[in-house]
Amino acid sequence: MNTPDLSVEIAGIKLRNPVMTASGTFGYGAEFARYMDLESIGAIITKGLSIRPKAGNATPRIVETPGGMLNAIGLQNVGIDAFIADKVPFLRTISTPVIVNVYGNTLDEYGELAGRLDRIPEVAGLEVNISCPNVKQGGIVFGTDPAAAYEVVKMVRDATIKPVIVKLSPNVTDVVTMAHSCADAGADALSLINTLTGMAIDLAKRKPVLANITGGLSGPAIKPVALRMVWQVARAVKLPIIGIGGIMSATDALEFMLAGATAIQVGTANFLDPTAAQTIARDMERYLAEQGIADVKELIGALRS
Amino acid sequence: MNTPDLSVEIAGIKLRNPVMTASGTFGYGAEFARYMDLESIGAIITKGLSIRPKAGNATPRIVETPGGMLNAIGLQNVGIDAFIADKVPFLRTISTPVIVNVYGNTLDEYGELAGRLDRIPEVAGLEVNISCPNVKQGGIVFGTDPAAAYEVVKMVRDATIKPVIVKLSPNVTDVVTMAHSCADAGADALSLINTLTGMAIDLAKRKPVLANITGGLSGPAIKPVALRMVWQVARAVKLPIIGIGGIMSATDALEFMLAGATAIQVGTANFLDPTAAQTIARDMERYLAEQGIADVKELIGALRS
Amino acid sequence: MNFKATVITNVEVSPGYFRLRLTAPQFFVTAASPGQFVMVRVSASIDPLLRRPFGIFDVGVMATEYPDVQQPFLDILYKVVGKGTAMLAGFHHGDQMEVLGPLGKGFGTGEPSEGKVLVGGGVGLAPLYYLARELVKESRVHLFAGGRGRDDVLCITEFERLGVETYVSTDDGTLGERGLVTEVLERYLANGTGAKTIYACGPFPMLKAVAEIAGRTGIPCQVSLEAYMACGVGACLGCVVKGRDHSEATPDYRCVCKDGPVFDHTELSWEQRL
Amino acid sequence: MNFKATVITNVEVSPGYFRLRLTAPQFFVTAASPGQFVMVRVSASIDPLLRRPFGIFDVGVMATEYPDVQQPFLDILYKVVGKGTAMLAGFHHGDQMEVLGPLGKGFGTGEPSEGKVLVGGGVGLAPLYYLARELVKESRVHLFAGGRGRDDVLCITEFERLGVETYVSTDDGTLGERGLVTEVLERYLANGTGAKTIYACGPFPMLKAVAEIAGRTGIPCQVSLEAYMACGVGACLGCVVKGRDHSEATPDYRCVCKDGPVFDHTELSWEQRL
Ligand SMILES: Cc1cc2nc3c(=O)[nH]c(=O)nc-3n(C[C@H](O)[C@H](O)[C@H](O)COP(=O)(O)OP(=O)(O)OC[C@H]3O[C@@H](n4cnc5c(N)ncnc54)[C@H](O)[C@@H]3O)c2cc1C
Ligand SMILES: Cc1cc2nc3c(=O)[nH]c(=O)nc-3n(C[C@H](O)[C@H](O)[C@H](O)COP(=O)(O)OP(=O)(O)OC[C@H]3O[C@@H](n4cnc5c(N)ncnc54)[C@H](O)[C@@H]3O)c2cc1C
Ligand SMILES: Cc1cc2nc3c(=O)[nH]c(=O)nc-3n(C[C@H](O)[C@H](O)[C@H](O)COP(=O)(O)O)c2cc1C
Ligand SMILES: Cc1cc2nc3c(=O)[nH]c(=O)nc-3n(C[C@H](O)[C@H](O)[C@H](O)COP(=O)(O)O)c2cc1C
Ligand code: FES
Ligand code: FES
């Protein structure tokens, strides 16, 4: 049989396959270049970017938990100037679309980031992080209040003609309302989920393990929550969805597509295995070939009930 | 050294140690009588009880997930008449306090349940389940809306002089607001967390695994989220707290106590090992003895930062 | 009871099927009856998290290298279908695991000296061996064993060694007759004479067909079910099946783990998704 | 590179400490330099989830049972401290695991023929052996090895066999001198002559004391740090330490995995919680 078609399109960005790498788990792409073929995946999402360089949180910043991990990196990043000067030149050398995850402390910062990235041809689109749970100032409020989310997305929307993907927080009562707000404000696509807020304690020291006390839970442990939210949002909102959360294998990835995702992101799995994203893309292709499915798009939202 | 004091008091209920069994994971107590000593633990919480018998959901009702499990039992239970006739006689034979987890479809049902249980001397207290995510009608709304939660708790409070524990849902943006509402309505204690709403998909069948589509996630996977919520609520609300979520060992249990819990509940762990609750209580005692801690109450909220 | 068992042997008896022999306390061997099951903790880690249920294939007491020492044991026969059973297949002599059991309600052996008819599909044969061993003491026993192909029909010689008369069929005809085990059963019953009891274990569609035959012919019939299980002791209500009189208004759910796994075929509603 | 390694041997060299020899591709052996590390996937399951970092104790090529076949290998020396290392201790000859490496920036071996001073605390000795093996080719090497007690001072004979002069101390005096390794070091430096470089690996307080000595005496000093790691390749930013010029306004965080694990002592801020 013919090789199956794995290509999908998210908000006008053409992907050779639905596998993206999740922000914060894949650096700026270059870190993984020697372990895998960056041309084998659909897109790369870079580490959350802010206007000014950010120090991030004190250490310890990560800790393993049952079936998952907590991180409280605190959005350490090089800032937009260094990003453009030092990171973009490498990104120019690969053909895989690069989507930049952005984060602002204020509405204006979101606008400024979007405006400046709008002028960088190497940037295929923006993923707006309104959901990072680690930064006290701002982040979590935008991500949990539908009106505030609307404002942020509107601001970004007005500042760029590039595709705007909004990344949703799972730490909400009603993710569908958040999704509607973002859609109303002009988002082209939604990605979900970001991490669940959690905590770990060191009994012997009687202290939180993380210097930041709380952190974001990622990894296989959160997959059922992510799958549920993707399914809920996909049924309620017309936008294409990128499924994220605990994806370790092609099976996981395809489950998210059945739930309604057009593409998926691989996060924590990159740490377990630096070739994870490439392997997942390859195994998806194999599965489709074995099952005689000509086009991966047939699976999007194809869940029976 | 002397044997450490493990006793704690929750809402006037004296417990020989802080280990309770979580509702829905320990039947009505009798199911475990042949595997462990029911007199070795602090309290038993029985399966969610409603006015009328409830059929529960279609099967499959459970599925394993990474580091956890989803359940959508749908509150199958015998109803209050059969509870009083068939279950209470056994409970009379043990000295361990029995707390009844109650669930209503309407405000009035909550009131009626509380009123009838108020007259049963074998019932040490009520745990009000406002958070079960599996029953479409009612449950989830009471558990995620502070005003509705207030109404339920007030209704129960007015119907009984027994201690009222309110069990909180983690599927909310702001668990502290929910906790305040329950406290304002007269709750004597709070227990948290109930399960996180999740979903599992069978790729081969292209169907949700659970007949109910979504279910409640429990087990080690959710422990970081539970620990974070216990910590948040303990700092904000004056009521005693019962920590629940992924507790598998005495270490886990003591971490919840450091985060601010006065007692804890063992849920999914009972399935892995029917002696889990007893073992955890024993290991807590050993730990205290080894560390020279005379009284477990010293650890409640003793987290340094 | 919950006990730590040590692997004595773990042998692949057919491609993908293993027979595992574990040490057991004497108490277990005394208490166990045919049709009961055990919950096995495959890993001390959280992956897989839940125990796995397996029927008791056999129990007994075996000689050891020391002339005076007898070792009580428990056998299970399992098929590798997923993560837990794949891990089980990696266990070696001396490895340990936690076992909970004997659990559930086993087969009723009924009046002695009637003709007993066992029907097993694939690994559904597993709980029938121990049953056959008991039944042959007082009755003539016939076994109808079916499977996809020759590799899926297990331990037939063991049954024959007990004196059981065996009838083998496979879907693809690679062993015995080609066709469904229930077709062979039905032909046998049409010719047969005398009072009988049917004992069946296998996939749900097979059990449903057997129950239908039993209902039609009026032969008493016990079936052993499978269900997703968490606790194995009747506490979680995860493993329920609908009883005969089940309706939304008057729920009649039975726990496979506690009320079963063996049920009289008339106790159950045969309209269910399993 | 990421490769599947097979266990050759896994030997307990001292109570709670194991030396694990793994097969490695020739490319790995050629590429590895002293002070680099590997990330080992201890289990194919999700428990434990993350890989564990270990220094390269040694690499080389060994004879096999076949006269013409040489087997490239990688050794790590590890202490059982938690779940992952406990599981590692259960690996036997023939078992497999995934290994990522060589990772990070190793020791700079500096000018040849100077006096080289190695300081190792407990299992911090691990990356110093491979370093010593390289250094002895051109320099006189002195090793200061410290630990809690006699069981925590590892592989001293191996170092001596290389021609390294060793100075042992323990906190409880059960082996060598009683006292801190840094006290012995300081006395030695006070008497010593000639240009030197210090290479240190061990617990943070030890490294801090060594850095302080180096700073005071003006001796060049490289330290190898540990940190909680997720990715090992500079992507997650979980493993950072504060660089010399770090402040909130001008953040200067270094990745232990990518910028280290070996740092010049002057590169780092020594005021940090680790
Ligand atoms: C009472 C009873 C007796 C059984 N006896 C035997 C036996 O003697 N030999 C044998 O090979 N198998 C038997 N089974 C089925 C056996 O339990 C499953 O094949 C096994 O649990 C699969 O585990 P896994 O991790 O390999 O598969 P996975 O697919 O990874 O399992 C995932 C989950 O599904 C559950 N599961 C999967 N298949 C089944 C099933 N058919 N029944 C119940 N739960 C299932 C597992 O317990 C687990 O929770 C029995 C089941 C029951 C309920
Ligand atoms: C660059 C580097 C080189 C190392 N080299 C060696 C070596 O050669 N020999 C050796 O015995 N140990 C070495 N360690 C420490 C070793 O990684 C830990 O002891 C090990 O990860 C503990 O795992 P565990 O599962 O047994 O412990 P757990 O306490 O169960 O581990 C839980 C988590 O903590 C992390 N962790 C625990 N202790 C440490 C630590 N000290 N450093 C980093 N992460 C830690 C684990 O990776 C894991 O994520 C090194 C660490 C680093 C960073
Ligand atoms: C170490 C780490 C850093 C992360 N940094 C970011 C970030 O900068 N911006 C963002 O939107 N998400 C960030 N995330 C969240 C991931 O992109 C992803 O949403 C989450 O980890 C869930 O997916 P997973 O379970 O596959 O890891 C980070 C996650 C991890 C583990
Ligand atoms: C099978 C099952 C049934 C449950 N039934 C109830 C219930 O009836 N009422 C209730 O309040 N919580 C119920 N719960 C939630 C548990 O009491 C507990 O809050 C949750 O499982 C988290 O704890 P754990 O991780 O220790 O299991 C149930 C959980 C499980 C797994
Ligand atoms: S498996 Fe829990 S009730 Fe049957
Ligand atoms: S371990 Fe991920 S950046 Fe160092």
Automatic annotation (TrEMBL), chains A, B:
InterPro entries xrefs: Aldolase_TIM, DHO_dehydrogenase, DHOD_1B, Dihydroorotate_DH_1, Dihydroorotate_DH_1_2, Dihydroorotate_DH_cat, Dihydroorotate_DH_CS, Dihydroorotate_DH_I
Broad class of where this protein is predominantly found: cytoplasm
Active site positions, chain numbering: 132 (nucleophile)
Coiled-coil intervals, chain numbering: none
Record text on cofactor binding: Binds 1 FMN per subunit.
Pathway: Pyrimidine metabolism; UMP biosynthesis via de novo pathway
Residues that, per the record, bind substrate: 47, 71-75, 129, 194-195
Names of the cofactor(s): FMN
Claim: DNA repair is one of the keywords in the record: no
Alphabetical UniProt keywords: Cytoplasm, Flavoprotein, FMN, NAD, Oxidoreductase, Pyrimidine biosynthesis
Residue ranges of every copy of the Dihydroorotate dehydrogenase catalytic domain listed in the record: 6-288
Gene3D superfamilies linked to this entry: Aldolase class I (3.20.20.70)
Entry's localization field: Cytoplasm
GO molecular function, one term: dihydroorotate dehydrogenase (NAD+) activity
Quaternary structure and partners: Heterotetramer of 2 PyrK and 2 PyrD type B subunits.
Function: Catalyzes the conversion of dihydroorotate to orotate.
Family per record: Belongs to the dihydroorotate dehydrogenase family. Type 1 subfamily.
Name under which the protein is recorded: Dihydroorotate dehydrogenase
Organism taxonomic ancestry: Bacteria, Pseudomonadati, Thermodesulfobacteriota, Desulfuromonadia, Geobacterales
From TrEMBL, chains C, D:
Cofactor binding notes: Binds 1 [2Fe-2S] cluster per subunit. Binds 1 FAD per subunit.
SUPFAM superfamilies registered for this protein in UniProt: Ferredoxin reductase-like, C-terminal NADP-linked domain, Riboflavin synthase domain-like
Occurrences of domain FAD-binding FR-type (ranges): 1-109
Gene assigned in the entry: pyrK
UniProt KW keywords: 2Fe-2S, Electron transport, FAD, Flavoprotein, Iron, Iron-sulfur, Metal-binding, Pyrimidine biosynthesis, Transport
Subunit structure: Heterotetramer of 2 PyrK and 2 PyrD type B subunits.
Pathway membership, UniProt: Pyrimidine metabolism; UMP biosynthesis via de novo pathway; orotate from (S)-dihydroorotate (NAD(+) route): step 1/1
Cofactors demanded by this protein: [2Fe-2S] cluster; FAD
Ligand binding ([2Fe-2S] cluster): 231, 236, 239, 257
Name of protein: Dihydroorotate dehydrogenase B (NAD(+)), electron transfer subunit
Species: Geomobilimonas luticola
Binding site for FAD: 84-85
Pfam families in the cross-refs: DHODB_Fe-S_bind, NAD_binding_1
Function description: Responsible for channeling the electrons from the oxidation of dihydroorotate from the FMN redox center in the PyrD type B subunit to the ultimate electron acceptor NAD(+).
Recorded family membership: Belongs to the PyrK family.
